[in-house]
Design goal:
It is built from seven helices and four strands; from the N terminus they run H-H-E-H-H-E-H-E-H-E-H. It has 219 residues and is of the alpha+beta class.
Amino acid sequence: MDLYQAMSTQRTVRRLRPDPIPDDVLERVLQAACWAPTGGNQQPWRVVVVTDDEGKSGLQAIYQPEWDRYVAGFMARLEGLPDEQLEPWRKIAAAGDHLAQHLAEAPAILVFCADPSQMAITDARLDRISIVGGGSVYPAVQNLLLACVAEGLGCAITTLHCRREDDVRALLDIPDGWATAAMVPIGYPVLGGHGPITRQPPSRLAHRDRFGAPWPGVS
């Protein structure tokens, strides 16, 4: 699959079949993650590939109540919108409900972890929330997502489990000092899987030379 095609069709797929994923396919998507750039080429991340029923059920028990709280608050903030604007969000919420209720049925749940002590966190002392450290783990997650598209696997990046990181670390024997960064359930899609996505274009997100200066193509 062409890289641009993979990037432009990488949907969040929350309805997954329980069919097992062959080990050679898992190896390829994991290899894609390993090719990602990291600060100082340190690769300060690891991924736990959870395929056993105990681990997957434990992750669902952690994730589902966090999702339920999150989606209730999110939908409450949308109250009052016209139905035509609200309906797409209802569909997204329903797909999220399905994932939360059936998470343990996904054939594999990947939990990405990172060791901050190995990261070149150049913004650690700035008077704002640190962002740079994530650059040493999330490119690996994105590589994996793109590889899933190429392999015909559905995938969804989630982070709500971080609210109960201690429980996740205990469940998966993640050592002290390692943080959880993302949870990615993967599997073959129940429905159509990946397809065209809608995102803002460079004319809205890019600037020429100075912040606020229009990128070519903006009238």
